[in-house]
Amino acid sequence: MEYEAVIGIETHAQLLTASKMFCSCSAEYTGADPNSLVCPVCLGMPGALPVINRRAVECVIMTGLALHCEIAEFSKFDRKNYNYPDLVKGYQISQYDLPICRNGWIDIQVHDKTKRIGIQRVHLEEDTGKLIHAEGQSLIDYNRSGVPLMEIVTAPDFAAVEEVQEYARKLRAILRYLRVNSGNMEEGALRIEANVSIRPVGAISMGNLVELKNLNSFRAVWRSVEYEIERQVQVARTGGSVRRETRGWDDVKEVTFPQRSKELADDYRYFPEPDLPALEIARDWVDEILASMPELPEARRQRFIVQYNLSGYDAGLLTDERAVADYFEQAASAGESKGVSAKSIANWVTGELFHLLNVADIGIEMTKVSPTQLVDLLALVGNNAISTASGRHVLEVMFETGKPALDIVAEEDLARIADPNALSTVVEQVLRENPSAVAQYRQGKEAVLRFLVGQVMRATKGKADPDRTTQTLKEHLSRTDG
Predict the structure, then answer these.
(1) Span 201-227, mean pLDDT?
(2) Does 404 score more than 90 pLDDT?
């Protein structure tokens, strides 16, 4: 029997707010001493009352709008009850039946086909503390407890791991464009959970659901879902029954492993949070948020194709990250007055500059080469003031030092030989040193000309202009024949 996968995705995204969800403690907990960013509210002390973080609500509304969701006019918070050591109150303030956003969608492209993925809900909750297991002890750091956490839940619309991967990448790009989430999966700021089940091909009902928890890299998403589909198929084909459970992912062994039975909604005993008022979201506020939103990746990609005459591939590379797209547009604007084409800028950004950024392991916002400095360099290459090879070298020096291109060209004497007399002197020397090549050329073997051009380039350390060199050689060889 053949089986097909049915997959839904839950994404937990820490929101980029200054303070926590329900108190004034700093939400910037990375690098802080354990349990140093806490107060009676986020420690769940008796009598401590929470206060809603307005900016967090705004981030969720913004995300919902980007995902084409309906924005609720009325929402509320609920208590989600479960007992784990990292949940200091014994319950989590979350949202159940009345989320802020619902009924949205996102389009993904896989194998040149577009598929629409339904977004069931986007809701707001608080993060838990962090358990640390070391040397036979379990320690808890509550600095993360209470950090605003947005959960995005899809419909079970995925049928293949490629679709899941594309969705995860596209969602991350949107969240980073909106600047509501850092996208740092390895640090736990963005955690993906996959709900995986299988069924006989053509069947309507779904099989038992297995939840894969806290996948913290795109590779982990791909490998875990791929493994889990195959595991469930093998269980079914050997006559077994897939258990409804929560499983973890072992990055080293590349296998999923059971953690606990999967809870149902009733197990959490949801009820309205008595210490928080209901949320009434005014249409004027939603319209204000919508007006402030940036151009999103897909719209920007399409505009780059039309406005800058780029290929879909290049436009995709340039718009995956907002900082890269901003850098490119600033360079393209500067290039208009200096005769540097957008296509040339795109080639250098996605080629040489991306390579340097990858080697240095930094984002484009950290580079010492400003967009206008890059354009100045490309203008020198485009005007044949320096060779392409010299241009690459100059960019490397600019990347390391931040110096302008002209200064580096002058310091290292990289400018091409523009004086015809100087070029003629070199050509004459090369012809004297290669009489056999001259003789072959005079006998009609024009291919030898490439060899002579190479010798001139070698003698000038690449500073001779190839076109001028070819023309000058022909002139001198013609005079020799005469």
Answers:
(1) 93
(2) yes
pLDDT of residue 334: 97
Q: Which CATH number fits domain 420-481: 3.40.630.30, 3.90.1720.10, 1.10.10.410, 3.90.1200.10?
A: 1.10.10.410
User: Hey, where are the domains in the chain?
Assistant: 3-288, 295-411, 420-481
Which pLDDT belongs to residue 400?
Answer: 97
CB neighbour list of residue 203: distance below 8 Å, 6 or more residues apart: none
Confidence (pTM):
0.86
What is the distance between the alpha carbons of residues 264 and 241, in angstroms, rounded to a whole number? 19
Predicted confidence (pLDDT) at residue 89 exceeds the cutoff of 50: yes
With 70 as the cut, is the pLDDT of residue 56 above it? yes
CA atoms within 13 A on the CB side of 187: 12
Q: Give 417's DSSP letter.
A: B
State residue 6 phi and psi, 5-degree precision. -130, 120
Q: What are phi and psi of 408, to 5 degrees?
A: -70, -40
Q: Are 233 and 3 in contact (CB under 8 A)?
A: yes
Radius of gyration of the chain (CA): 31
